[in-house]
C-alpha cells in the first residue's frame, strides 16, 4: 500500500498546551513502522466549524484520515458528528456498544446520562472498533476513496486501540504484509551510524533501513514488505543479522524497549540480583529499573548518597578516599559500587558520581564529568565519562544512567566492559 | 490584543513520531497565558511543497504565524526560504548573526561549512531574534497584516527563545499588558474544583479564571489585562488572595513549578535537611527531589528498599513488623521513615510502601494500596492511600510521591497533616 495519512487531533486542551500531542507521536511511529507516509498533523479545538474545515482539507490531501479525541460526552461527540456529516453518513445506534457502555457504567459506578448513550451512535455501515479501555468506541469507514478512522483521545485508550484495532484494520487494507525489526544501539552517535550506512540505505528498496536518535541512544529500523509474513521475515532476518555483525557489541538488543529492560532480563535468566548507589543520578537509575514491572524479582534496592556523609555512613566509602580524590572520582565510584553490593546484598551493583550542574563542583570538576562503576563477584570496573558541558541537567543524568546500564549488560553478556 | 495564532511545526522527525511536538505545547501554554487564541497546530515534514501549502493556509486563517524547526543546515533552512518567498521578502546577511555563528563554531570546536553561514541569512527588514542557546537565529516580521515569527526546533533553544525573545515582541504588539498568576493545588480533583468555581468563572471577564488538571495535581490560572503592569496586578492580587482563602491548605503555592520545589524551598528557609526511604516509588521521590538544581543543599540521600531484606538490614525495619503486618502496611511505612532519618542523618524523612501493580502483593493487598509517612523530630505521621486499581503503574507511583511531598510541605508550613 502506498497511502498518505493525515492525523487530525481534536481537543482544546492541546491548543491550550495542557497536554502534548503524544497520540500523534504514537500513531506516527506505528504508521511509519507499517510503511505508511504520514504527511500532516493537524490540531483543532472543540470547535465544529474549524473541525469541519480541517476535515475538508484532509480529505483532499490524504487518503487515510485518523482522528483522535472529540468522541466523549463533554465535547458532544464533535468529531463523529463532523465526520459523519462531511461524508454523508447517518448515525445509528450500535447495540453492542450500548451494552458495553451500560456495563462500563456499572463497573465504574458512574451514573450514565443521555450523553453517554450517544457514544453508541456510529456512522451507518462502519466498522466499530471496540474500546476495551474506556467507554467511547472508535470506528472506521471508507467513503469517496478515503479511509476514516476515529479514535478516542486519552493516550491510555488511544494506544491500545491503535495496536489492537487499527493495525489489523490497516493490514486488511494492504495487499501484502509489512514487518519490521528495530535494533537498539548504545555507544555510537546517530551521525556516525548514519555515515556508515548511508550508501546501503540509499541503495536499499525492500527491506528499507531507517536510523533514529533517542535520548543518547540510537535505533535502526529494518522494514520489509512481502505477500506473506514468512516472506517478509525472510527478507528481514539476514539484514538484521548483518547489522548485528557490523555493529557488534554496540547493539544491545532487537525489538526491546530499553537498556534497563535488557539488563533485567539478563539478570532473570542468570538468577542474579542488582542494586544501585547513586550520587549525580539521584535515584534515576533505581527509578528506571523499577519502571519495569516485575523488577522486584531482580532489583534489591538502591542508595542515593547525595552527601559525603551518606557515602561514608551508609555505603562505607572510606573517608580518606573522599578527602584525597573528592566525591567525583574513579576511586569513589568504585567504593560506592562495592559498598552498595555489600549493604544491599546483591550480586552486582552499579554506581554513579559526577557533576550534573548547573555549576562546577568544589573540586573544580567541569559539568559533565561523570564516573560510573559496576561491582561484581569478579571485581569492579569504572568508566569515566566526559559528557560535555552544555548545562542540561536532565540529559546528563539520563546519559550517565545509560552508561551504567551499559556496563551491566556488557558484564552480563560476557562482553568487554570497555566501550 | 485579540489575535489568532497558528503554530506551524516543520520537521520530518515529528511525522515519523521520533519526538512529540512539545514545542507546540510549550508555545500554546505561553500564548494562552498571554491571552492569545491558538486555533491551529500544523505539522509538515521537511518538504518545501507541503510547507508552502501550510503557509498559504495559515496566512488566511491566522494573523500570527509562529513556526518551529526547519532553520538548520540539515534541512537547507527550509522554513526561512518558504516564508520569505511566501511574503515576498529578500534574504540578506545579518552581520551580528554571522559573528555569532563564527564564535559558536569556535566555542564548540565544530568545523563550519557554507551551510552554517546561510543561517545568518534573514528576511530583509525583519527583527532578528538572537539565539543565545544554539546557532540558528530566529526572526520576526510583519507583512500583509500577518505577524510571522520563526523559531528553532530543538526544545532547549525554542523554550528560551520564546520566553526571552517572543514574549517581549508580542508585548510590544499589544496595547496593554497581560499578566497572570497560577495557584497550584494538591488534594482536590479538577471536577470538584471546577464545580466550586463554575458560577464565578462564567461571570468573570477581567481577570479570567482557568482550571487545569496535571498528573494528579490541579492548577488555577488567573489572567488580567490592563494598560499597565501595576493595574493588571491590582486586578489579579485580590482574586489570588480570595482563592487562597477559599481553598486554604489545598493551595501549595503560587507561580511555583512543583510540590518538590516548594518542599526544598521551605527546607532551605528553615535550614533543615530531608531524606527518603522508598519501596513502591522505587527511587522516583529521590529522582524528583534531585531534578531541582541546588538540591544538594537540603537533600541528603535516599534508600530504595525493594526487598524486605533491605528494609530490615539498611533501614532497620524490625523483622517482627514485616512478618506481622507485611511490607505494605502503616507500621512498616512508619519504621521505614524513621529508619531513613536515622541512617541518613536528616531532619525529616519521607517513606513510601505500596502495591504499584500490575498484580496484588503476597498479602492480597489490592493494586493502589499505598502508605506514605513522614518522620520528624516531633514524631511520625502515616497517610494511607487507596488510589484505585486501574493498573497504571506510572500514575500510581507519581501520585504516591505527590502525597509524600504533600506531607512534607504541610509539616514545614505548620499545617495539619491530615488531607
Largest interface (CB within 8 Å) is between: A-B, 76 and 75 residues
What's the end-to-end separation of chain A, in Å?
A: 42 Å
Name of the CATH first level of the largest domain in chain A: Alpha Beta
Give the quaternary arrangement of the chains. homodimer
Q: Which stretches of chain A of 5+ consecutive residues score pLDDT under 50?
A: none
Total number of strands of chain A? 17
Helix content of chain A: 40-55%
Question: What is the molecular shape of chain A?
Answer: elongated
* Largest sheet features of chain A: 6 strands, mixed
Computed Rg of chain A: 26 Å
The computed structural class of chain A is alpha/beta
- Write the CATH homologous superfamily of the largest domain in chain A: MoaB/Mog-like domain
What is the number of independent domains of chain A?
A: 3
Our count of helices of chain A gives: 15
Average pLDDT metric of chain A: 91
Which architecture of the largest domain in chain A per CATH?
Answer: 3-Layer(aba) Sandwich
What descriptive keywords fit this protein?
alpha/beta; 419 residues; 17 strands; Molybdenum Cofactor Biosythetic Enzyme, Chain A; homodimer; 3 domains; Alpha-Beta Plaits; 15 helices
Amino acid at each position: 500500500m502506498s497511502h498518505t495519512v493525515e492525523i487530525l487531533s481534536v481537543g482544546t486542551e492541546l491548543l491550550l498546551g495542557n497536554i502534548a500531542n503524544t497520540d500523534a507521536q504514537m500513531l506516527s511511529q506505528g504508521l511509519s513502522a507499517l510503511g505508511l507516509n504520514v504527511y500532516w498533523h493537524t490540531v483543532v479545538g472543540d470547535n465544529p466549524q474549524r473541525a469541519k474545515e480541517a476535515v475538508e482539507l484532509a480529505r483532499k490531501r490524504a487518503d487515510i484520515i485518523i482522528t483522535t479525541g472529540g468522541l466523549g460526552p463533554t465535547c458532544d461527540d464533535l468529531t463523529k458528528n463532523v465526520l459523519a456529516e462531511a461524508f454523508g453518513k447517518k448515525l445509528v445506534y450500535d447495540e453492542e456498544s450500548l451494552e458495553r457502555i451500560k456495563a462500563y457504567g456499572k463497573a465504574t459506578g458512574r451514573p450514565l446520562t443521555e450523553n453517554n448513550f450517544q457514544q453508541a451512535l456510529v456512522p451507518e455501515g462502519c466498522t466499530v472498533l471496540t474500546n476495551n479501555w474506556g467507554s467511547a468506541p472508535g470506528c472506521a469507514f471508507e467513503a469517496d476513496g478515503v479511509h476514516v478512522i476515529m479514535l478516542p483521545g486519552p493516550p491510555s485508550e488511544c494506544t491500545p486501540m491503535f495496536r489492537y484495532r487499527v493495525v489489523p484494520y490497516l493490514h486488511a487494507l494492504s495487499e501484502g504484509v509489512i514487518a519490521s525489526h528495530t535494533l537498539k544501539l548504545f555507544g555510537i552517535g546517530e551521525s556516525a551510524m548514519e555515515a556508515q550506512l548511508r550508501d546501503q540505505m540509499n541503495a536499499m528498496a525492500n527491506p528499507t533501513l531507517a536510523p533514529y536518535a533517542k535520548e543518547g541512544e540510537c535505533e535502526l529500523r529494518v522494514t520489509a514488505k512481502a505477500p506473506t509474513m514468512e516472506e517478509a521475515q525472510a527478507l528481514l532476518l539476514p539484514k538484521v543479522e548483518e547489522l548485528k555483525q557490523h555493529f557488534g557489541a554496540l547493539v544491545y538488543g532487537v525489538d526491546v524497549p530499553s537498556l534497563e529492560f535488557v539488563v533485567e532480563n539478563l539478570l532473570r535468566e542468570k538468577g542474579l540480583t542488582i542494586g544501585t548507589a547513586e550520587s549525580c543520578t539521584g535515584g534515576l537509575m533505581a527509578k528506571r529499573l523499577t519502571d519495569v514491572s516485575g523488577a522486584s524479582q531482580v532489583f534489591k534496592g538502591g542508595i542515593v548518597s547525595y552527601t559525603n556523609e551518606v557515602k561514608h555512613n551508609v555505603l562505607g566509602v572510606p573517608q580518606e578516599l573522599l578527602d584525597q580524590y573528592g566525591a567525583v572520582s574513579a576511586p569513589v565510584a568504585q567504593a560506592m559500587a562495592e559498598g552498595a553490593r555489600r549493604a544491599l546484598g546483591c550480586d552486582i551493583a552499579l554506581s554513579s558520581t559526577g557533576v550534573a550542574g548547573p555549576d562546577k563542583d568544589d573540586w573544580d570538576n567541569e559539568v559533565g564529568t561523570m564516573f560510573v562503576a559496576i561491582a561484581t563477584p569478579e571485581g569492579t570496573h569504572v568508566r569515566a565519562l566526559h559528557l560535555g558541558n552544555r548545562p542540561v541537567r536532565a540529559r546528563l543524568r539520563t546519559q550517565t544512567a545509560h552508561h551504567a546500564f551499559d556496563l551491566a549488560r556488557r558484564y552480563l553478556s560476557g562482553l568487554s566492559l570497555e566501550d
